[in-house]
Amino acid sequence: MPIIPLLFLFAAIMSGAGIAYFVGSASVIAFVTEDHARFLAALPQRVMGQLNVFAFLAMPLFILTGELMNRGGVTEALIKFSMSIMGRFKGGLGHVNIMTSVFFAGVSGSATADAAALGNTLVPEMEKQGYDKDYAAAVTAASSIIGPIIPPSVILIFYGALMNTSVVALFAGGIVPGLLLAAVLMVINAILAHRYDHPGGRGAEIPRFFPALLDALPALSLPVIIMSGILMGFMTPAEAAGLASVTAILVGWYYGRLKPHDILIALERTAVLTGAVFIILVAIATFGYLMSIEQLPQALVALIKEMDLSKTQYLLMLNVIFLFAGMLMDVKAALALLGPLLIPPAILLGVDPTHMGILIGFNLTVGLLTPPLGGVLLILATVLKMDYWRLVRGVFPFLVAELILLGALIFIPELTLALPRYLGLLT
């Protein structure tokens, strides 16, 4: 991209404008300055062609499902059920926090939604039981990124549509890494619980298992409906998302917390979030069109060959780039901006597209826990009215463990690919 559009892009970024506006406008300026203005006549058709993807239909419906469930009273039922299982251990409420995030992941698929919901409920309860507020907030932040890994995941749907990869295979590929992430966080929580003598263990007040299970069954039914329908081939992701939205309304009514006004708010919030996502996609489609005309992907592949990078070396470099992008940018914006340019060369080098999708999704969501603009950290610091940098220090041990797990996923692809391959979802 020439100097004038680059200067405009930098000025727009510094002004605080939304990424859709500065990427889109800089791309259009580049069309003109590079004497490609004649190609702008085909831009609307090109953009609409890229947005006309069936997988995108599932995204607003899963967003709506998460919004409905967040307002429908499921959090308390899931916490009580998790407490009936994990509350008997040292640092039990920390384990409950992580386990609730696993269940919640099958509902919302959003790290920020999970962080906001659990920050308002579990953190005050952990403080009441004797936990330090910094630690309670840190374990909430660390466990919230399970949401975008375990399906249904909005970011995996976004990747699948953007990179023309099977969303069903991505959903299956996210299950094992998500559960491994939960296990790693529980190990760290157990170590810190004994080191700092956290509450829990014998003598703790534990809800009875079967009453807690019966109360939580309506909430637990939602991920079962979604995943069984998709993985068994009964439903497409879009059909499963539609059924999940209807089920979310029924579950909210069952718990007596979801009112007609809440449904309207959820619909309004879904429309706003969906609009924000699609305006980014329009801008990125414009940028992608310019890249194809300038043949930037081919130039990047040639550069990789010239540098003689192996598949693993390029994959490591790619993950470092996306990790820094996740620190500074919105997850979907970072994926949309960098994915079409950097991911195709990795696939040409032999990286499986499903493996790539899980790595990028995991990578970018880890960025939500890293300063200076970690989205989950900002949300929890605001919700809990606590110092941002104290929260950063508290989350550091969990962040290190998550980066180690990311390294394991890079070097052991079968952790991601074994289940999709077993289910016959990989070609």
TrEMBL record:
Lineage: superkingdom: Bacteria
* The TRAP C4-dicarboxylate transport system permease DctM subunit domain, residue ranges: 7-415
Q: How does it sit in the membrane?
A: Multi-pass membrane protein
Q: What is any one of the record's Gene Ontology cellular component terms?
A: plasma membrane
Keywords in alphabetical order: Cell inner membrane, Cell membrane, Membrane, Transmembrane, Transmembrane helix, Transport
Q: Which InterPro entries match?
A: DctM, TRAP_DctM
Q: Where are the transmembrane segments?
A: 6-31, 51-69, 98-123, 135-162, 168-192, 213-234, 240-258, 270-292, 312-329, 357-384, 391-412
Q: Predominant location of this chain?
A: membrane
Annotated localization: Cell inner membrane
Pfam families per the UniProt record, alphabetical: DctM (PF06808)
MF terms in GO: transmembrane transporter activity
Q: Would you identify the family this protein belongs to, as annotated?
A: Belongs to the TRAP transporter large permease family.
Sum up the protein's function in the record's words.
Answer: Part of the tripartite ATP-independent periplasmic (TRAP) transport system.
The UniProt subunit note reads as follows: The complex comprises the extracytoplasmic solute receptor protein and the two transmembrane proteins.
Protein name (database record): TRAP transporter large permease protein
Source organism per entry reads Cohaesibacter marisflavi
